[in-house]
């Protein structure tokens, strides 16, 4: 006999160990089996399981388990990402905490050795945590983005793309993190709203130029008064970058400045002569309409500089400090010309005052200088969004530096075409728009990072700056011999590759490429990819580019995009808000299955509103299934050797057979279609509403009756149905179903093996019996109406009013006779009769085409009940009026958080629906 409750804390580790020992996580070796493959989005090796991981990996595991049970050779390939910045930061902190020297004092080789030591000791944390979630990955094939096989693949890809002219070295703007002294990707940039200011500076016109500037306007916006100016006002949130200004831009159609386009200003402090250029980037409606252009320190300015031919002058070092003169003027413009090609006036005696200052200290000093010299016209306080490094927390600096780039535009074209023609599809399809938009407007991809942990760039420099790109140093030396008569010293590039570069090769490098392996032949391209929307362009698009370029076909046939998990109010989870749900804490307390089921059933929306209460509710679902299995055992429902459900005769057994068949169809179609919420919802309805609430209730009288043949058939059918139900539910709730499979298998014929390796149910259409469905449907609808009416009329649970069918026809009379006992029990009525007309004091309703009367005389106090209903209707009217007032206020709708507005709309809909029900009940009372 089953224990009273399922204890996940004890059962889950034991069950998972059985799965691993069984070898069933590995693909079937049967060559005839259809292949199904999926590669895990590799979590950072530094990471711990968070709620996003729980969602993403639950959905992948559902697919893997389902297709495995369908008889396919399933490869779910796991691995972790070396996470350059994150890992380097973790180890540096550990070294500092232990009082050790920093990495620069330690040296590159020694520091990297320390990181490998850390990985061996702590790098497997998230892999162990994925096991606790129930992930059925083939751990024997686990990969790491820095393992030797992937290292070889990365080197080969880099060298080949360089030979094809698709990887090159260039000086461009990057997101620069002054704390880590490295370029970072857009994904590693966090936009934060901060208090700041616009500083309005007056730049004097060169050559004593003046112009007429409008200062007064009429009601229609036409200028009525002008003043003569010998300056132009620009506004900036970053005064320190003015040292690198090389132009001022105004809009081509801005009449205020038309007379001075092509003229020059003298840049304060530096004395540099810079031109006024016309460019549509300048917005005439913002500020003065004139903007300073600093191509080396702003992405938009870089593009303006490129269009206008302005030089790009770097004024900061890698730490975000102001450079000295010599370093500052080692800049180039967008066409590769050095600043020596331009006439630049410099006031040498002034600029050194700021050399060596941190950028924010320089900001204060420059503003003070502007105020002192009279060219500070205004300080306008504002809140604005400033980019920060998500790891370092410091303000990111757009910085002009030499980096390695991929010509992503060329690689993007086949990736675009593949989705356009359906070689790869997105689910939901709407996410294709994000994919297309990014690829159609793609910029060169900066792939170098100024770190030590990662794939070191396979490029070596000769004595005269020559670059030799090769897979090995030996190959680089062979190339160098062509330029020199004798062997010369080569220095390898200090930088490493962007983590996303190696991740872009993940679907094929993990299967052994560049070698021609059996795994590549069998499992590439992969079947599905499950990932989040925020990395469609960082990862999905790049895998598409690399997969097609090196493998000649798409890396996956379908991309399933999962939503973002938020708190129950729809707010983003964050430690600062205290609203983070820790999946490991949930697993410790409630087990993995309730968490997995919740993730699945809520997965159909972009923003998943999650609360612990929801997860606890689905733990109750598991408890319901467990109790149903115990009830079956107590009623001697055991599996029978050779039992054939096609031969059952009892109406309830033919009915549950059909309901199970429909549930299997619905669940299979939903999982196949990536609609995990529909799959979980279908399972919930079948298990709770159909099997537990109705079938077992309908079976009770049979179990307790004297018809031995009916009893024997119903016991066997119950056990068989429970077995099939465990199979259907297993991909979503693997632990409790595996435990029940084992426990229920102790009676009856021996099991063939674990549930994870069982075959998915194959149920013929003939199992759906229309007559049984109609008859049980009639009974279920009738009892449902009785129960609903009792609740609506506030009938006490202990009361058993009489029920009468009004002038039933012969078919209905026959149904009543067959199911009278069930109607009495399930409807909690004292009798089931018939009458020519509804009795006095009875409320009537229609079910199954019949009019039915439930007598309430002496059971409820009509006056009190009428007063209760009127009071509740009045309360709902008040709520409806209050919410309507809120929603009718444009300020509330526009200013309140979207989740608050949605909450009010849901509240209104609920109140209106409740009012309709209460009004119907009141109308019934009026008829008594």
List keywords for this structure.
928 residues, alpha/beta, four-stranded antiparallel β-sheet, four-stranded mixed β-sheet, 29 helices, 31 strands, globular
Q: What's the SSE blueprint?
A:
Blueprint: H1 8-22, E1 35-39, H2 51-69, E2 73-77, E3 79-80, H3 84-97, H4 103-106, H5 108-122, H6 125-133, E4 143-144, H7 148-163, E5 167-177, E6 182-184, E7 189-204, E8 211-217, E9 223-229, E10 231-236, E11 247-250, E12 264-266, E13 273-278, E14 290-293, H8 299-308, H9 325-328, H10 359-373, E15 376-389, E16 397-406, H11 408-420, E17 425-427, H12 432-440, E18 445-446, E19 448-449, E20 459-461, E21 467-469, H13 473-481, E22 491-492, E23 496-497, H14 499-503, H15 506-509, H16 518-523, E24 526-532, H17 536-551, E25 556-562, E26 564-567, H18 583-590, H19 592-601, E27 607-610, H20 612-634, H21 651-672, H22 676-704, H23 708-729, H24 734-744, H25 770-792, E28 803-806, H26 810-827, E29 832-835, E30 842-847, E31 850-855, H27 862-887, H28 890-895, H29 898-926
Parallel strand pairs: 1-2, 3-4, 11-13, 17-25, 24-25, 26-27, 28-29
Antiparallel strand pairs: 5-6, 5-16, 7-10, 7-15, 8-9, 11-14, 12-13, 16-18, 19-23, 20-21, 20-22, 28-31, 30-31
Explain how this protein is built.
With 928 residues, the protein is an alpha/beta fold. Helices cover 44% and strands 18% of the residues. It is built from 29 helices and 31 strands. The strands form eleven sheets. It has a four-stranded antiparallel β-sheet with strand order 6-5-16-18. It has a four-stranded mixed β-sheet with strand order 12-13-11-14. A hairpin with a 6-residue loop joins strand 12 and strand 13. It is globular, with a radius of gyration of 36 Å.
């Amino acid at each position: 006999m089953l224990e009273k409750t399922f204890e996940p804390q004890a059962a889950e580790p034991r069950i998972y160990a059985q799965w691993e020992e069984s070898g069933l996580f590995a693909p079937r070796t049967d060559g005839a089996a259809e292949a199904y493959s999926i590669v895990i989005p590799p979590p950072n090796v530094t990471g711990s399981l968070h709620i996003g991981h729980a969602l993403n990996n639950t959905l992948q595991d559902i697919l893997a388990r389902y297709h495995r049970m369908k008889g396919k050779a399933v490869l779910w390939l796991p691995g972790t990402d070396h996470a350059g910045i994150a890992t380097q930061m973790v180890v540096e902190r550990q070294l500092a905490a232990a009082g050790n020297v920093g990495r620069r004092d330690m040296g590159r080789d020694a520091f990297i050795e320390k990181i490998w030591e850390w990985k061996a000791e702590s790098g497997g944390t998230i892999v162990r945590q994925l096991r606790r979630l129930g992930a059925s990955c083939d751990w024997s094939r686990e990969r790491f983005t820095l393992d030797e096989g992937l290292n070889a693949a990365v080197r080969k890809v880099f060298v080949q793309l360089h030979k094809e002219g698709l990887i090159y070295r260039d000086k461009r703007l990057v997101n620069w993190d002054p704390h880590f002294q490295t370029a970072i990707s857009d994904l590693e940039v966090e936009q934060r709203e901060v208090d700041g200011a616009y500083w309005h500076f007056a730049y004097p016109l060169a050559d004593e130029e003046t112009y007429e500037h409008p200062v007064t306007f009429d009601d229609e916006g036409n200028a009525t008064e002008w003043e003569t100016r010998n300056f132009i006002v620009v506004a900036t949130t970053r005064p320190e970058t003015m040292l690198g200004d090389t132009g001022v831009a105004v809009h081509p159609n801005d009449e205020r400045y038309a007379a001075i386009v092509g003229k020059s200003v003298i840049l304060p402090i530096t004395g540099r002569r810079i031109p006024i250029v016309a460019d549509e980037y300048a917005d005439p409606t913002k500020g003065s309409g004139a903007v300073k252009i600093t191509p080396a320190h702003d992405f938009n300015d870089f593009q303006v500089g490129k269009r206008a031919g302005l030089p790009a002058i770097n004024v900061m070092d890698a730490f975000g400090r102001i450079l000295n003169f010599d370093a500052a003027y080692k800049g180039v413009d967008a066409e590769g010309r050095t600043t020596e090609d331009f006439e630049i006036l410099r006031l040498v005696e002034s600029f050194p005052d700021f050399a060596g200052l941190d950028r924010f200290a320089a900001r204060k000093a420059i503003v003070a200088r502007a105020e002192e010299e009279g060219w500070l016209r205004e300080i306008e306080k504002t809140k604005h969004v400033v980019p920060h490094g998500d790891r370092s927390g410091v303000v990111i600096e757009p910085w002009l530096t030499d980096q390695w780039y991929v010509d992503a535009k060329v690689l993007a074209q086949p990736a675009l075409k593949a989705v356009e023609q359906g070689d790869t599809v997105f689910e939901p399809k709407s996410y294709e728009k994000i994919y297309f938009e990014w690829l159609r407007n793609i910029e060169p991809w900066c792939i170098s990072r100024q770190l030590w942990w990662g794939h070191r760039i396979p490029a070596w420099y000769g004595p005269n700056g020559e670059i030799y790109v090769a897979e090995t140093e030996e190959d680089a030396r062979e190339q160098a011999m062509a330029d020199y008569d004798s062997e010369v010293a080569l220095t390898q590039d200090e930088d490493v590759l962007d983590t996303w570069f190696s991740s872009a090769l993940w679907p094929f490098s993990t299967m052994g490429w560049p070698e021609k392996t059996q795994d590549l032949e069998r499992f590439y391209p992969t079947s599905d990819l499950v990932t989040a929307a925020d990395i469609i362009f960082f990862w999905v698009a790049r895998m598409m580019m690399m997969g097609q370029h090196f493998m000649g076909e798409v890396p996956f046939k379908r991309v399933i995009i999962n939503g973002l998990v938020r708190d129950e109010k729809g707010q983003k989870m964050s430690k600062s808000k205290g609203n983070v749900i820790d999946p490991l804490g949930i697993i410790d307390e409630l087990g993995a299955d309730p968490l997995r089921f919740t993730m699945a059933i809520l997965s159909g929306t972009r923003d998943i509103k999650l609360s612990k209460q929801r997860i606890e509710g689905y733990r109750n679902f598991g408890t319901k299934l467990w109790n149903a299995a115990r009830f079956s055992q107590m009623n001697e429902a055991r599996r029978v050797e050779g039992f054939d459900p096609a031969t059952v005769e009892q109406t309830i057994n033919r009915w549950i057979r059909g309901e199970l068949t429909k549930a299997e169809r619905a669940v299979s179609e939903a999982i196949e279609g990536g609609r995990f919420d529909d799959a979980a919802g279908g399972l919930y309805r079948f298990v709770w509403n159909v099997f537990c609430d109705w079938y077992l209730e309908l079976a009770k009288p049979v179990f307790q009756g004297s018809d031995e043949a009916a009893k024997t058939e119903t016991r066997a059918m119950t056990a068989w149905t429970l077995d099939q139900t465990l199979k259907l539910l297993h991909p979503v709730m693997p632990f409790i179903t595996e435990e029940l499979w084992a426990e229920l298998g102790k009676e009856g014929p021996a099991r063939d093996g674990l549930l994870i390796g069982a075959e998915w149910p194959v149920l013929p259409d003939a199992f759906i019996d229309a007559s049984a469905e109609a008859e049980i449907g009639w009974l279920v609808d009738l009892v449902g109406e009785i129960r609903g009416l009792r609740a609506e009329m506030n009938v006490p649970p202990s009361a058993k009013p009489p029920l009468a069918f009004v002038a039933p026809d012969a078919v209905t009379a026959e149904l009543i006779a067959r199911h009278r006992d069930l109607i009495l029990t399930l409807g909690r009525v004292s009798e089931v009769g018939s009458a020519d007309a509804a009795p006095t004091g009875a409320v009537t309703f229609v079910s199954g085409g019949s009019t039915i009367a439930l007598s309430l005389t002496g059971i409820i106090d009509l006056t009190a009940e009428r007063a209760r209903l009127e009071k509740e209707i009045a309360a709902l009217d008040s709520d409806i009026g209050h919410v309507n007032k809120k929603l009718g206020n444009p300020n509330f709708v526009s200013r309140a958080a979207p989740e608050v507005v949605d909450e009010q709309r849901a509240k209104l809909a609920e109140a209106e629906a409740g009012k309709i029900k209460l009004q119907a009940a009141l109308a019934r009372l009026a008829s008594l």
